[in-house]
Amino acid sequence: MTQASRNISEQGYNKDNKYRISNLLGLFFLIAVLAVIAIGGWTITRWMDDADHLPLSLLVISGDRQLTRDDDIREVIMSLGEPKTFITQNVDEIQQHIMANLPWIRQISVRKQWPDMLKIHVTEFKPYAFYNTSELLDPEGHIFQVPMSRIEDKSYPHLFGGKGSEKILLNGFNEMKLFLAKYGFEIKSIVLNDRYAWQILLTNGIRLELGRRDRMLRLGRFVTIYSTLLQQTNEQPNINYIDLRYGTGAAVSFSSQSIK
């Protein structure tokens, strides 16, 4: 082999070596980059998952609240365990847990705000009437419970009825309330029994037995009878109850005598 041929062979060999080395360096660099990305991602994930790094440390509660205290919300949240991180905390879980444990809350919104805040907006049921012994009704007839010690206004009417009768009771109350208010009477309580017969107790102590039907017609008869008695005695008649379950007329029971 001539000297020229040897030089050409050596040059080719050197080029191949440089190409292989360049490829190896590129491969090592790619592996290093991928390793850095993987380690960095794992580190960031662990960092974000660590409550010591991004704890939900601030709680902001808003909404028109008459029944709900800040401690109510805080205690329900803490019953789920230690607060999680901003990334890992499930707000749906908090929302469902609050709704399950605070039955006077009608609607609730729970959201996170960067970097460490949990914001909760509360919408409560509005008390409108006491229902049976331990529940309340809102103006739309929804039944809910709340500790009675939280109810400051004790003047709500008491409505008593069987299961599923709350809407009938509420509609009847509203209708009779408007009618009686025109004549200066207020309803203290209403009982709707299993036979759907109505009994009303007025705030002046008079009990009205209306029966199952024609309740508005019978209320009108009560107003007429009461006005007549008032004109006859020139003073408030001392009436215990008036039974209006008759086709015409009524039975009136006074404190000391009964007339029909």
Explain what the structure shows.
- This protein has three domains: 1-49; 58-124, Ubiquitin-like (UB roll), CATH 3.10.20; 129-259, Cell division protein FtsQ/DivIB (Rossmann fold, 3-Layer(aba) Sandwich).
- 39% of the residues lie in helices and 23% in strands.
- It has helices at residues 3-49, 70-78, 91-101, 166-181, 215-233; strands at residues 58-62, 105-113, 117-124, 129-131, 135-137, 143-144, 158-161, 187-192, 198-202, 207-211, 239-243, 251-254, 258-259.
- The strands form two sheets. It has a ten-stranded mixed sheet with strand order 6-5-4-7-8-9-10-11-12-13, with helices on one face.
- The longest helix is centred in the N-terminal third of the chain and has 47 residues, at 3-49.
- The protein is rod-shaped and about 120 Å long.
- The model has no long low-confidence stretch (mean pLDDT 85).
Describe the structure using short key phrases.
23% strand; rod-shaped; three-stranded mixed β-sheet; 3 domains; Rossmann fold; 260 residues; Ubiquitin-like (UB roll); alpha/beta; ten-stranded mixed β-sheet
Condensed summary:
With 260 residues, the chain is α/β, with parallel strands linked by helices. It has five helices and 13 strands.
What is the strand and helix layout of this fold?
Layout: H1 3-49, E1 58-62, H2 70-78, H3 91-101, E2 105-113, E3 117-124, E4 129-131, E5 135-137, E6 143-144, E7 158-161, H4 166-181, E8 187-192, E9 198-202, E10 207-211, H5 215-233, E11 239-243, E12 251-254, E13 258-259
Parallel strand pairs: 1-3, 4-7, 7-8, 10-11
Antiparallel strand pairs: 2-3, 4-5, 5-6, 8-9, 9-10, 11-12, 12-13
